[in-house]
Each structure stands twice: as C-alpha cells, then as structure tokens.
Automatic annotation (TrEMBL), chain A:
Statement: the UniProt record of this protein carries the keyword Membrane: yes
Organism: Streptomyces pratensis (strain ATCC 33331 / IAF-45CD)
Keywords, comma-separated and alphabetical: Membrane, Transmembrane, Transmembrane helix
CC terms in the record's Gene Ontology section: ATP-binding cassette (ABC) transporter complex
Protein name: ABC transporter permease
TrEMBL record, chain B:
Residues of the ABC transporter domain: 5-241
Entries under InterPro entries matching the protein: AAA+_ATPase, ABC_transporter-like_ATP-bd, ABC_transporter-like_CS, P-loop_NTPase
Region (Disordered): 256-287
UniProt cross-references to SMART domains, sorted A to Z: AAA
GO function terms (MF aspect): ATP binding; ATP hydrolysis activity
Recorded superkingdom: Bacteria
Pfam family, one: ABC_tran
Organismal lineage: Bacteria, Bacillati, Actinomycetota, Actinomycetes, Kitasatosporales
Name of protein: ABC transporter related protein
Keywords: ATP-binding, Nucleotide-binding, Transport
C-alpha cells in the first residue's frame, strides 16, 4: 500500500451554507424573558394537573418531605428568635415614643405572623431545600436520567417534580406554624424582659389587634411561597444550560428568582388582604 | 412481531444549525437496521427524534398510527412503553442499585409481585452478563457494565422496538462481538424492530438486515444491507474502509479545494477494490429461527429489480447456500 501524503482537512469548518430553516424568523431577543416566564407558568400548570394524576408517588413524597424538613427546621427556629426580637425592639421603641406602649404586643405579633414568618420560611425553603432540589434535578438532567425516565413512559414531572413541590408546600405550612410561635415568644421575651413591658399589656393588645384571619393569611402565604420555591427550583433544574457549569448557574438563579418572586407576590397578597379583611382594632 | 416505524420528511435544526433535513425511511417490522454516520452527523438526535424526546420542525414519525412528533403528549407517552432505548452511557439512575434500575420499568408499569420482578430482572441481568453486580450503584461499575445494564433495563418490558445508541462504544472487541450476537439472538427471540446507531464497522457488517447512513445533513441511503455494503458512493466506501481520502474530513466536510486537490493528486477515491459482503450473523444454536430474516427475504426478492447490480449479486450469493457460506 502506498501511503499517500496526509491530506488534512481545512482547520476551519466549511463555511456554514445558508441552509438554515427556511421561512422561519428567529424570535426576537426582547421576547426571551417572556418565553421563560411562559414556560415557568406552563410547568406550574403541568404540576398542578399532575398532582391529581394517579399513581401518587407516596414514597418519593415522604422522602422529600423528610429531606426538606430536616434541612430547614433548625435554621428556621434559630432565625426566628432574633427576628422576633428585632421587631419587638423596633416596634417597642417606636410605640414608646408615640406613647402607645401598651400596643407593642399586638403590633409585633402582627408583623411576625403576617409578614416575617412566611418570608423567613420561604427564604429558608428556597435557600436550603430549593437549591438542593434544583441541583438534584439538574444533575439528573445532564446525566440523561430524565430522558431515560421519559423514554420509559414515566413523566419526570409526575414522578419527581410533584412530590418535591408538595413537600416544599407542606413543609412551608408546618414550618410557618413553628416560626410564628418561636417568633412571637421571642418578641414577648424581649419586650417583657428587655424593655420592661408588662406581660398583661402585651397579651391584652395581642388579642385587641390580632385576629384569626391574620394567622390564616400567614399560612396561605407560606403555602403559596412554598409552591413558588418548589416550582422555580424544579423549572431551573429541568432546564440547565449546557453541562455541569449550567447546573451550578441554574441553582444560583433558582434562588435569586425565587427571592424576587417572593417579595413581589408578598406585596400583592398583603395589599389584597388589607383590602378585603377589615382590621380588628378599627 | 415488531412494529413498523415510518419516518417521513423529518427535518431537525438547533437554532440556526440544521442537523439533517428531509429524512425519510421505513424500519421494516421486526428487522434489525443500522444507522451509520461519522461522528457529529446527528445520529443520536435522529434516535431521540424517533422516540419523541426531541421535536423535529418538520415531518412525521409514525408508529402504530401515532405521530411521535405532533401527537398529543398522552399518546406519545403510551407509545413509548413499546420502546426500549439503550442510551450511549447507560443513563442509569445514579441513586439506585443496578437491580432497582432494571426493575424500575416493571415497578412503574406493571402490577407484578416483587418475587416475579426479581425473577425477570435476574434473568435479564444474566443475559447481559452482570450476575453478581446487581447490588452495586452505577457509580461503582465500569462504563461497559453500565452500558450492559442499560441494555438490560431497555429489555425488561419486552419492547416491540429497541433502539441502541452506540452499543459498542466503551466495549472491547470481544464484548462487542458478544453484544452483536446478543442483539441477533434477542431479535430471534422477541422479534422486535431494532435500530442500532453506531460507527462500528464490525457491527455494521454483520448484524443488520438494513443499513442507512447519515452524512452532511442528509440521509445518504437506506435499504437492504447489501446495497450499502456494495455501494460505490464515495462517502460510503470511504466510511466502510476507514480511509482518510474521501469526502469526509476531520470536521464534518472537507472544503472543495482540498477535495479537488485530493482527486487530482492521484490517490483518488472510489477506486478501492470491490468489497466483499461478510455473511450476516445467525442466531446461536438453540435459538428459534429469525422470523424477520424470512420476511426480509421475501421483501428483498420482491424489490430486486430496483437494486443496483452489485447489491443484487451479493443478495443472490447470500441466499444461495452453496455460495453464501464460506466466502470472505
């Protein structure tokens, strides 16, 4: 065999022939954020539908519930004590200047139960559990595990995402109860011990200003925030962009996006609540 | 008997980059087909499009009347249960042992008792030669073992259509030969339609009934194995001979200037000695007769008139017992 001189192909790939898909205009860049938003909503809808589809993944749900709870309980309790205290001190000092010190209890309890508690819960769930969920789904995606699952006729949304979203929702609700109690106790402790408030006045103003719907709305918020945290984490995890680095970025983004969504949704919910539920003290 | 897969005018692009266009072919029911092609010509994309994981912009993939491209997601999910797909690197679930991985489709789709699941899974594990490793996690075994486990998982639901994405990559030549034999034996046993995507020449020469080749955004050809094996198209003969001279370059295509230089410099391509067609693998002794081979014979004989001369001769030889045997 005569060995021919090696003929290397050109280093540059042959210039891309203009064979791009005919008759198709590339979508405008301005619309990209809208597309992402739309896909996020589509996933939320798909999850909401798949929640009711049999068979329900009990085992996966319990595992995820346990996981989410175990990574959030302790930090939530530890964060809520100083948070309740800060609110108590701040409100206490303000009401003292106004001469309405007897209402400190009610005001700080309202702030903790309605605002602080659901937000603390959601931030912790997004930060601790959401990031883990996003990383888990993302690495499964790039290892083609999700494709394999889909090929076997099993929907990853139903099999993996639904249990995780339900877990974040229910843990958020339960955790919200814990944080509300611990936060309120923290506020009580600091108001009574540090600021010399009287226990009787604290409790009396508590029942004068606070009402049960305040607790309900706190729990509802926690439920919605848990849903948002779960959906955003799942969405970013299911769509990582290119390789392991993409998974890292996706985790980062999922936490940031969740935080931003939380505060926006919280504002809307609070505004609606203040409109439709009459204040008790009024 | 397997199910026919009809692909019509399939075109897929990622953004501006066109992967292939207007691919039309029919995988005959129960037969083994191989899709060849240089690296990066979208063979895996083609496989994933058939099963509906990727959505081509144009065309249809018809299986039992369901279009895997445009039908409702529910129908596609249902149809996927007919498939077994062996991924390039196994795509096993990292958090489950091999046993649980292979049992996964059974647990999801059937109401079998655990003892029966165990029996079926162990049987499949035995077939792919992984006995003793069933308790290991995918991270603890070699790439070749992961691949075989992936095959076992693809087989566990007795699929009607089996798709294999590069079954040979990461396997040594001996294991590749065993795997080729295994695929043929499987075909004899369950009579499933099979599509193997590969660039391994041994598998391509010995396993399939039909062969196709993707190159340069097009389906070069698809038909009975003899057509491709005897083809004198430059792309095909370069690929089958593994030469550097020809239209296939290190990057996807060579540019015209290099090609012209090559042709004039004397080491032209297309003058290679006529290739002989290696006989196809037969099922191991004790296996049933491959029904697909019988069906294919009828089909090929009926289309004999449309085939090129070289392919016709090769087919005649292979179907004449006195000549078909020991020729190399």
């Amino acid at each position: 065999m005569t060995a021919p001189p090696p003929v290397r192909p050109p280093a540059e790939p042959a210039t891309e022939k203009a064979t791009g898909t005919p008759g198709r205009k590339p979508p405008s860049r301005l619309l990209a954020p809208l597309r992402q938003t739309g896909q996020l909503f589509a996933l939320a809808l798909a999850v909401a539908r798949a929640i009711f589809r049999r068979p329900f993944q009990v085992r996966e749900f319990i595992e995820q519930f346990w996981f989410v709870a175990s990574v959030t309980i302790l930090p939530a309790a530890l964060v809520s004590i100083p948070f309740g205290a800060v609110i108590a001190l701040q409100v206490g000092s303000l009401t003292e200047q106004l001469g309405a010190q007897s209402f400190t209890g009610g005001a700080s309890v309202l702030a903790v139960i309605q605002q602080a508690s659901p937000l603390i819960v959601a931030l912790l769930i997004a930060g601790a559990a959401g990031s883990a969920i996003c990383a888990d789904l993302g690495s499964r995606k790039i290892r083609e595990e999700l494709d394999a699952m889909e090929v076997m006729g099993v929907s990853p949304v139903q099999r993996l995402v639904v249990p995780r979203v339900l877990a974040t929702m229910f843990v958020a609700v339960l955790l919200n109860g814990l944080v509300s109690v611990v936060g309120t106790l923290g506020g009580y402790f600091f108001n009574v011990i540090m600021q010399g408030g009287t226990p009787g006045a604290y409790l009396a103003s508590f029942s004068a200003l606070a009402q049960l719907p305040d607790l309900y709305v706190g729990e509802l918020k926690a439920l919605i925030f848990g849903f948002i945290a779960g959906i955003v984490a799942a969405y970013r995890g299911l769509n990582p962009r290119g390789g392991p680095k993409g998974v890292g970025d996706a985790v980062n983004q999922s936490v940031v996006i969740t935080f931003m969504l939380l505060f926006a949704v919280n504002m809307v919910l609070t505004a609606i609540y203040l409109q439709i539920v009459p204040p008790k003290g009024g | 008997m397997g199910i026919e897969v009809v692909v019509e005018g399939l075109t897929k692009s990622f953004g501006k980059q066109n992967i292939w266009q207007d691919v039309s072919l029919t995988l005959p029911a129960g037969e083994v087909s191989v899709m060849l092609g240089p690296s990066g010509t979208g063979k895996t994309v083609f496989l994933k499009s058939i099963i509906g994981l990727l959505k081509p912009e144009k065309g249809r993939v018809l299986i039992n009347g369901v279009d895997m491209v445009n039908s409702p997601e529910r129908d596609i999910m249902e149809t996927r249960k007919l498939f077994g797909l062996m991924f390039q690197d196994g795509a096993l679930f990292g958090s489950m042992s091999l046993f649980d991985n292979i049992a996964f489709p059974l647990r999801e789709h059937t109401r079998k008792k655990e003892s029966e699941i165990r029996r079926i899974v162990m049987e499949r594990i035995d077939v792919v030669g992984l006995l003793g490793a069933e308790g290991k996690l995918p991270g603890e075994i070699s790439g070749g073992m992961r691949k075989r486990a992936g095959l076992a998982r693809a087989l566990v639901l007795d699929p009607q259509i089996i798709l294999c994405d590069e079954p040979d990559s990461g396997l040594d030549p001996v294991r590749t030969a065993y795997l080729s034999q295994l695929l043929i034996d499987l075909n004899a046993q369950i009579d499933a339609t099979m599509l193997i995507v590969t660039h391994n020449l041994d598998i391509a020469a010995t396993v399939p009934d039909n062969m196709g080749m993707l190159f340069c955004r097009n389906l070069v050809t698809f038909g009975p194995r003899e057509v491709l094996l005897t083809s004198d198209m430059p792309v095909v003969s370069q690929f089958l001979a593994g030469r550097r001279e020809g239209p296939i370059g290190m990057s996807e295509e060579k540019d015209a200037a290099t090609l012209a230089a090559e042709q004039t410099s004397g080491n032209g391509w297309g003058h290679a000695a006529p290739r002989t067609v290696v006989p196809q693998l037969e099922p191991s002794p004790g296996m049933p007769v491959r029904q697909a081979a019988l069906r294919r014979r009828e089909r090929v004989v009926s289309m004999m008139g449309q085939l090129p001369e070289a392919a016709r001769t090769a087919i005649m030889n292979s179907y004449t017992p006195t000549l078909g045997g020991g020729r190399r």
